[in-house]
Amino acid sequence: MGQYVVRRLLQMIPVFIGATLLIFLMVNVMGDPVAGLCGDRQCDPATAARLRKEFGLDKPVGQQYLTYLANVFTGDFGTAFNGRPVTELMSSAFPVTVRLTVVAVLFEIVIGITLGVVTGLRRGRPVDTTVLLITLVVISVPTFVTGLLLQLLLGVEWGWIKPSVSTDATFDELIVPGLVLASVSLAYVTRLTRTSIAENRRSDYVRTAIAKGLPRRRVVTRHLLRNSLIPVVTFIGTDIGALMGGAIVTERIFNIHGVGYQLYQGILRQNTQTVVGFVTVLVLVFLVANLLVDLLYAVLDPRIRYA
Amino acid sequence: MLLEVRDLYVEFRTRDGVAKAVNGVGYGVDAGETLAVLGESGSGKSVTAQTIMGILDVPPGRITGGEVLFQGKDLLTLKEEERRKVRGAQMAMIFQDALSSLNPVLSVGDQLGEMFVVHRGLSRKDARARAIELMDRVRIPGAGQRVRDYPHQFSGGMRQRIMIAMALALEPALIIADEPTTALDVTVQAQVMDLLAELQREYDMGLILITHDLGVVADVADRIAVMYAGRIVESAPVHDVYKAPAHPYTRGLLDSIPRLDQKGRELYAIKGLPPNLMDIPPGCAFHPRCPMAQDVCRTDEPPLYEVSEDRGSACHFWRECLHG
After folding, report:
1. Domains contained in chain A, number
2. Could you tell me which of B219, B230, B217, B242 has the C-alpha nearest to residue B311?
3. Taking a contact as any Cβ pair under 8 Å apart, which residues of chain B between 34 and 73 contact chain A?
4. Does residue A80 form part of some domain?
5. In chain A, what is the straight-line distance between the N-terminal and C-terminal CA atoms, in Å?
């Protein structure tokens, strides 16, 4: 197991280099990193040249990339559009998004898996059909529609929540945004669990568990659910990365100053440093989330042994 | 009589129609007795066993008639909760494929110990100790260490021993073994079968052995019940059957056993295929495949004729079969 973790960590190095190189090339070579610095007007050539020299953009691309990597490893992600270091933006944005993601993942786990188990055990019955239909609707409707609709109804019309989240972004403020962010994944988790449960319900070991005279509850939780959760865990694990980076729409709607919001601002103002910095960290988050999923696999399924 | 199945009917309702899996089966087992239930796939032998155990999938399965008397009580009229307490504790089942029948993500110790935790209210620690005892009992080497292992870490024979240990855990009065050795290597089959027979004697349990291996039957069974299309076609003490079968289907089964003294000759096989359970032939269900079939077989369903005091045959021509 220890050996496997080391190997996986080593494998992450080329993936990290490849991903960051791609981001770097896209932003620095295909776009013009200086263009955004002069605001809406075009930079005058003299200023542009000075800026290029200042940021080392006149050097070869390869060298620029290495400088960038070296800076990343020393924790220097450059300066954002407002003159503050990108790391400062990160330290304010990431805790907010992490809280939002935690709320979203909790919704996925608690509601998604519960609904999945209930429908999987009652396949073809009215409960199942109804939930299936709802998940289909949730999957089909874009997040900005669900988000705006809930904001309008709960926040403006009925006044149950504040329509916009404060800068503190506490957990209770993030409940509705978290639900909106989780909605599509929640629907997928429900369907995934449902299929998995329905499939395993007819398996031999479940029949054995029933033949042992175990109470139904124990058969479902201890025997059926544990086996059925293996694919669900994979999905939720990889989804953590997606939720952290993909909260742009939700964070915009509820005015949450998290990663998605900063990333959006960075793109809008063509601030290379912010965009590259945040995406680099998100790449790391993805990699770590995937590693955790693989390790969790071995815990859930002892047949998977990492030698 | 420890267990008596009377006139049991089970059907499966599917989109394509109703499959009549069990059509009036009756058999019984005494304590310490071994009944071998013989038949091809689809003859209803496993469905009958599942009905006795109360693990039939309902729906699509449906019990449409009959009684399952266990120690005098009709199990089919019990409430599910009472039924559950009988399962595992008073009657247990051993399945064919131990690898898929054991839970892949729980250690064998957990799966064995669970019986004591649920039925006897033992603590996890005590249950684990009992699990080790059980593994010793079925002669799994190094039980103390192996109790933490998972099913996939055992060989096929060892896995089936674990299944047997699980069935024996609470010393039930009846064990149903559904083709317990089919998935095993021939060399291991005999060991597992001997172990099962030995433990049965020791605990004086009734054993229903579902099989299509006539070799196994001859060694361990006291009685044979032969099933075809969801009915018992012949029921008799094991030696009588081997001496002279009283049903042409039983005869066909016996003739299908490869024999050393007939080496080189083509193997005998009963012609035709088992009947479609959604469309069982009228009269005797076996008549399309029967070498002795007459007109009466196509119209009249034969009852289970009494051949002798403890022997029955559902063939209009059982006399001819017995003496021919």
Report:
1. 1
2. B242
3. 53, 55, 57
4. no
5. 6
Q: Using an 8 Å Cβ cutoff, are A301 and A226 in contact?
A: no
Residues A165 and A99: beta-carbon distance below 8 Å = no
Which residue does chain B place closest to A224, by CA atoms? Answer: B103
Instruction: Look at residue A302 and tell me if it is in a domain.
Output: no
User: Is the minimum CB–CB distance between B14 and chain A shorter than 8 Å?
Assistant: no
Q: For chain A of 307 residues, list the mean pLDDT of each consecutive stretch of 10.
A: 81 88 78 64 74 74 82 78 77 87 92 93 88 91 86 80 73 83 91 92 92 91 90 87 80 85 83 82 86 83 72
- The CATH number linked to A246 is 1.10.3720.10
Closest residue on chain A to B176 (Cα): A211
Which tokens go with A13? 């190095």
B24-37 average pLDDT score: 90
Task: Work out the burial of residue A165: count CB atoms within 10 Å of its CB; fewer than 13 is exposed, 13-18 middle, 19 or more buried.
Answer: buried
Question: In angstroms, rounded to a whole number, what is the distance separating the alpha carbons of residues B116 and B126?
Answer: 9
- Cβ pair A214:B114 closer than 8 A: yes
Confirm whether A293 is domain-assigned.
no
Residue B141, classed as helix, strand or coil, is coil
Instruction: Establish, for the pair of chains A and B, how many residue pairs have beta carbons separated by less than 8 Å.
Output: 72
Looking at residue A114, its pLDDT comes to: 93
Burial tier of B295 (Cβ tally within 10 Å: 0-12, 13-18, 19+): exposed
ipTM for the complex shown: 0.88
Spatial CA neighbour of A196 closest among A222, A220, A228: A228
Tell me whether residue A228 is in a domain. yes
Alpha-carbon radius of gyration of chain B: 21
**Structure token digits, residue A155:** 């926040």
B126-137 pLDDT tens trace = 999 999 998 988
Best B78, B101, B164 member to test A by mutation, with max A CBs in 10 Å, is B101
Q: Alpha-carbon distance A95 to A51, whole Å?
A: 33
Compute the residue count for chain A.
Answer: 307
Q: Across the interface, which of B57, B105, B107 has its CB nearest the CB of A226? A: B105
